[in-house]
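Colleagues,

For the teaching module next term, I've prepared a clean inverse folding example: a structure given as tokens, and then the sequence designed for it. I'd like students to try predicting residues themselves before seeing the answer, so please don't circulate the second half yet.
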């Protein structure tokens, strides 16, 4: 099976000219929110320390155990580096997460406690990420769970860019998708300079003159009706036609939103905001923020050196800008049709180590952000920090299956009931109430059997 990336690579070998006729100059939508929802999955790679981003507050019964386990890394209740109180001081956000605090208090951000993959238990970054993103509960496979969501989405044939993986490598959750575009910046997905002067006439899709150079000389029947390569080629050209007229550099964020120029993560969210407002049909998007593997030198908000706090601030500022940019009223309320879920492969050990850091753990938090999120509250249960409440006496217990959160987003926001196909082996859909929307009867078991997952 060829996808768009395969097609571009093959064309690159030929070094020829690809002609795109009928390029449409799409203007930005005139303050008209999309009629469909977009789900943005933010993955914090490296195992983000949820107990530092969202720590027990002054009225939380777990505060004493938290301070005992983290004498130097704890987020204090007062003085320098004091945490930002939320939920009647049951919890504290990291002091450098001010934008997240503002979104939480504005009821646009929710936190899911004790979230993770119940089984198989692994403290390997690679295995944990693969298990979550493939969605087969450790059974392997080369197709991501978001790919299966797209496969069952019943999208109109006019949708040319249903999925974007922001970055240089396609997210595992979108592996196997022939519809996904992978690009690190808005200027990446272009081939309109030098030997890639593709916006020329005539339209070689319908006629290739004798002796045509490059890909058309090598593959004279490229545009025949047979073959996956032909299909991938047409999909690629459709996507290129959509991306080409977009001037990403000229994009002006709304409402005074500022995306940090030095943060690749922030700039990728800006790119996604551009695509959302251009109404290109994007239903799902993925974006990563790495650097959370804090085995040593994690830092503390009390000290001048605060590596973890630097990452938190980058995350907070970028998500704050993204929501502000999309927020509006009436027809301009793109935030109402955009849902963001933030996750990591696992949390960190409750007890700090001797190197000023934390080691791989188990349970963590997830966050949900958007205009259709029932924010300003926590969801799920927190098992506690006493030794007998911890997983293997060391880690936060997983009490909320991450698939429960994602399934609710897929059903209520993407209006796709096939969550049992997206997550083979998952059953008993029970929404937590994180997202607003209608609960369709969960489905997809028949598709699992037909595709050999059982």
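(Answer key — instructors only)
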């Amino acid at each position: 099976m060829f996808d768009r990336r395969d097609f571009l690579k093959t064309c690159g070998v030929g070094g020829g000219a690809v002609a795109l006729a009928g390029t449409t100059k799409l203007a930005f939508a005139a303050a008209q929110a999309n009629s469909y929802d977009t789900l943005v999955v933010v993955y914090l790679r490296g195992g983000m320390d949820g107990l530092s981003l969202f720590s027990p507050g002054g009225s939380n019964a777990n505060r004493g155990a938290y301070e005992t386990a983290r004498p130097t890394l704890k987020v204090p209740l007062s003085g320098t580096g004091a945490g930002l109180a939320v939920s009647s001081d049951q919890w504290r956000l990291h002091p450098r997460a001010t934008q997240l605090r503002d979104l939480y208090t504005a009821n646009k951000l929710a936190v899911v406690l004790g979230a993770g993959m119940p089984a198989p238990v692994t403290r390997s970054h690679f295995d944990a990420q693969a298990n979550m993103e493939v969605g087969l509960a450790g059974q392997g496979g080369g197709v991501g769970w978001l790919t299966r969501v797209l496969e069952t989405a019943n999208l109109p044939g006019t949708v040319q860019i249903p999925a974007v993986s922001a970055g240089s490598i396609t997210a595992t959750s979108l592996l196997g998708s022939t519809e996904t575009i992978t690009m690190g910046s808005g200027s990446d997905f272009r081939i309109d300079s030098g030997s890639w002067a593709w916006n020329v006439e005539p339209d070689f899709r319908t006629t290739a003159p004798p002796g045509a150079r490059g890909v058309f000389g090598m593959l004279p029947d490229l545009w025949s009706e047979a073959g996956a390569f032909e299909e991938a080629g047409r999909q690629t050209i459709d996507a290129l036609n959509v991306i080409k007229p977009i001037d990403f550099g000229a994009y002006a964020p709304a409402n005074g939103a500022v995306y940090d120029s030095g943060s690749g993560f922030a700039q990728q969210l800006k790119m996604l905001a551009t695509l959302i407002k251009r109404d290109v049909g994007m239903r799902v998007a993925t974006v990563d923020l790495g650097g959370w593997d804090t085995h040593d030198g994690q830092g503390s908000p009390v000290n001048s050196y605060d590596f973890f706090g630097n990452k938190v601030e980058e995350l907070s500022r970028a998500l704050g800008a993204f929501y502000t940019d999309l927020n509006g009223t009436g027809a301009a309320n793109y935030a109402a049709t955009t849902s963001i879920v933030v996750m990591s492969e696992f949390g960190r050990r409750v007890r700090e180590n001797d190197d000023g850091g934390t080691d791989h753990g188990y349970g963590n938090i997830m966050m949900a952000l958007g205009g259709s999120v029932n924010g300003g509250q926590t969801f799920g249960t927190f098992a506690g920090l006493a030794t007998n409440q911890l997983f293997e006496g060391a880690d936060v217990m997983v009490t909320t299956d991450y698939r429960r959160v994602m399934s609710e987003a897929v059903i209520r926001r993407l209006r796709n009931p096939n969550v049992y196909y997206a997550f083979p082996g998952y059953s008993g859909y029970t929404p937590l109430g994180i997202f607003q929307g209608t609960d369709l009867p969960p489905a997809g078991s028949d598709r699992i059997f037909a595709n050999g997952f059982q």
